[in-house]
């Protein structure tokens, strides 16, 4: 049930400070969309507006429209909690709940929302999520152990399992591999390629090779200048962005001439 | 061997400064603790045999030790290590001096209190007792009941205030609450007692005494401590955990109840236990609001109750004839109070260990 996301003329503010200006893009269902660009250009900020996490910062707000299929995410009657129910998120640093076991971490999305499932059903959800996150074989014998005892790569896959256990339509990933070694990164990239069969995935990354490896579409963000807001320079098919981008700034960035 | 060049104008940063020797003079191993032991023994001798006051001997001993270790090190090891030795000595001496009153209190209370620390003390009240015998059973129960009531009032109020301040509070109101909580931490306990007395005197008329009044006076003292410690603990919960929970579509209130509070539970429990320990020995507010009685009264809504601190106070100021029996009971009550506080502290440590988020598999 992956859904398409359509962003129209989005301006993102922190209080009075305009952080990102005029973003319009379409995110295709069942694909991986990568967002690249230099630090501080608003990629993560933009990503967090997609599931209304941005407004958790005091006085943060947005102008413009985001549609998921036909629903306006910023419509007046929309409850942000319901938006987040359909759009899951994985963060830069793995953040399993320290008071919970591996099992409870995966089940957290259901348990914390008081979904009453029978033990067998819950077991099945946990196993399915952990298998989908390629973690089941490594942790199946220690599910009652605390999640924070796992290695960094395992913790990040645990967080992915936690995010997909609630079966969202869209999965947002904010630099999910930046704190991981190449082997864990490989595991998570493989996972993304498997997950995109069913999910719409948006990933922010600093690693251009990673964007080239996993994504179907790539969007390049940049600052207009020092002290100016960030903007979406262009978004196109990944092969095109990395071979014949239409903007000079994109070519400079991906060829390593700056940034 | 080239001499070490000083960093004068001609030395540029691209040339390494070579030639500084790698070895330096050192005091013999164990020099510092040995010196300290010798000086401490000398101070002990001054106190015991030369008629010095113990405090004077301790302070002079600390000064002599600091001076000796600094000068010795300065001659043998050079100024950098001497400074290190000086600061270490100052810190050690300050620690030992701070420890002395504590040891003195424990020794005094133990030696005076053990005389009546018997089963009779824990099973009898003072009903009909004038001289020998009697006990503090009524006072122990009174202290436990009143403190438990105070905790029952303070913990929910304090906890919810802290949750408001950390999770919801914005702007002037939150700042004002924080400020007044800080002010409240500093109010003298007698003021809390007068507040509770005045409040109840308005309703029940003057001269009213009830256990619940004492509990309210104590909770006035306890709430700010609970708020402050809980607030600090909630602030320590990483924001990432809240965001992780929000991203799973968990509403804010449920995030607080199921993620934030459990993560901070160990610290909160410790803070609450220490707040209880802080008020359990209060005397002045209980003297005004609860008074004293010599019989069992375990109903906090009906008349005077006995508490350990007030019991100890009255046994000391109104001894019978001969006074020794009363004084022994007073010291035994003080000892009991210290033991209760110690047990509470141990419980706090146990709780923080049990509830602490586990990281090891």
From TrEMBL, chain A:
InterPro entries: AAA+_ATPase (IPR003593), ABC_transporter-like_ATP-bd (IPR003439), ABC_transporter-like_CS (IPR017871), P-loop_NTPase (IPR027417), PstB-like (IPR005670). Residues 5-248 form the ABC transporter domain. Pfam families: ABC_tran. GO terms for molecular function: ATP binding; ATP hydrolysis activity; phosphate transmembrane transporter activity. It comes from the Bacteria. PROSITE patterns: ABC_TRANSPORTER_1, ABC_TRANSPORTER_2. Keywords: ATP-binding, Nucleotide-binding, Translocase, Transport. One of its GO terms (cellular component) is membrane. NCBIfam families: 3a0107s01c2 (TIGR00972). This is Phosphate ABC transporter ATP-binding protein. It comes from Prauserella cavernicola.
TrEMBL record, chain B:
One of its GO terms (cellular component) is plasma membrane. Pfam families: BPD_transp_1. Residues 140-348 form the ABC transmembrane type-1 domain. Keywords: Cell membrane, Membrane, Phosphate transport, Transmembrane, Transmembrane helix, Transport. SUPFAM superfamilies: MetI-like (SSF161098). The chain crosses the membrane at residues 31-49, 55-73, 85-115, 135-165, 177-204, 210-227, 259-280, 330-351. It is found in: Cell membrane. One of its GO terms (biological process) is phosphate ion transmembrane transport. It is a multi-pass membrane protein. GO terms for molecular function: phosphate transmembrane transporter activity. Belongs to the binding-protein-dependent transport system permease family. CysTW subfamily. Part of the binding-protein-dependent transport system for phosphate; probably responsible for the translocation of the substrate across the membrane. This is Phosphate transport system permease protein PstA. It comes from Prauserella cavernicola.
């Amino acid at each position: 049930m992956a859904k398409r996301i359509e962003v129209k003329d989005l301006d993102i503010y922190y209080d009075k400070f305009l952080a990102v200006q005029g973003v319009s893009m379409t995110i295709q269902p069942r694909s991986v969309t990568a967002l690249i660009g230099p630090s501080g250009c608003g990629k993560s900020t933009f990503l967090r507006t997609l599931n209304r996490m941005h407004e958790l910062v005091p006085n943060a707000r947005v102008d413009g429209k985001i549609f998921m299929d036909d629903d306006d995410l910023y419509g007046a009657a929309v409850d942000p909690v319901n938006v987040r129910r359909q759009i899951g998120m994985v963060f830069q640093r793995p953040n399993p709940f320290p008071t919970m076991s591996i099992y409870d971490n995966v089940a957290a999305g259901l348990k914390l929302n008081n979904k009453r499932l029978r033990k067998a059903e819950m077991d099945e959800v946990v196993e399915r999520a952990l298998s989908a996150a390629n973690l089941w074989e490594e942790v199946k014998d220690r599910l009652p152990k605390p999640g924070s005892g796992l290695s960094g790569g395992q913790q990040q896959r645990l967080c992915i399992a936690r995010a997909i256990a609630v079966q969202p339509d869209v999965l947002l990933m904010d630099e999910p591999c930046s704190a991981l070694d190449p082997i864990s990164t490989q595991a998570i990239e493989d996972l993304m390629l498997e997950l995109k069969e069913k999910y719409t995935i948006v990933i922010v990354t600093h690693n251009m090779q990673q964007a080239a490896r996993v994504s179907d579409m790539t969007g390049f963000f940049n600052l207009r200048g020092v002290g100016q807001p960030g903007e979406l320079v262009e978004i196109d098919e990944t092969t095109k962005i990395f071979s014949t981008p239409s903007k000079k700034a994109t070519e400079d960035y991906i060829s390593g001439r700056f940034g | 061997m080239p001499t070490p060049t000083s960093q004068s104008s001609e030395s540029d940063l691209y040339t390494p400064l070579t030639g500084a020797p790698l070895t330096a003079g050192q005091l013999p191993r164990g020099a510092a603790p040995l010196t300290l032991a010798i000086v401490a023994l000398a101070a002990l001798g001054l106190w015991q045999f030369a008629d010095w006051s113990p405090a004077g001997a301790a302070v002079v001993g600390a000064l002599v030790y600091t001076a000796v270790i600094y000068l010795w090190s300065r001659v043998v090891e050079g100024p950098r290590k001497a400074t290190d030795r000086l600061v270490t000595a100052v810190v050690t001496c300050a620690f030992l001096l701070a420890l002395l009153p504590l040891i003195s209190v424990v020794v005094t209370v133990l030696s005076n209190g053990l005389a009546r620390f018997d089963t009779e003390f824990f099973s009898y009240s003072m009903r009909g007792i004038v001289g020998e015998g009697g006990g503090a059973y009524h006072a122990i129960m009174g202290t436990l009941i009143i403190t438990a009531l105070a905790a029952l009032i303070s913990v929910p109020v304090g906890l919810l205030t802290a949750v408001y301040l950390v999770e919801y509070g914005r702007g002037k109101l939150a700042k004002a609450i924080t400020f007044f909580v800080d002010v409240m931490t500093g109010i003298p306990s007698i003021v809390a007692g007068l507040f509770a007395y005045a409040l109840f005197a308005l309703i029940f008329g003057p001269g009213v005494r009830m256990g619940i009044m004492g509990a309210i006076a104590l909770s006035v003292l306890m709430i700010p401590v609970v708020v402050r410690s809980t607030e600090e603990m909630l602030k320590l919960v990483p924001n990432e955990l809240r965001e992780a929970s929000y991203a799973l579509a968990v509403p804010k209130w449920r995030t607080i109840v199921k993620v934030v509070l459990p993560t901070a539970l160990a610290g909160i429990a410790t803070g609450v236990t220490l707040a209880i320990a802080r008020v359990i020995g209060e005397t002045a507010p209980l003297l005004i609001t609860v008074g004293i009685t010599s019989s069992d009264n375990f109903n906090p809504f009906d008349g005077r109750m006995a508490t350990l601190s007030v019991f100890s106070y009255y046994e000391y100021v109104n001894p019978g004839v001969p006074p020794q029996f009363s004084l022994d009971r007073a010291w035994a009550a003080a000892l009991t109070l210290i033991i209760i506080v110690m047990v509470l502290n141990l419980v706090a440590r146990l709780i923080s260990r049990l509830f602490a988020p586990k990281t090891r598999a």
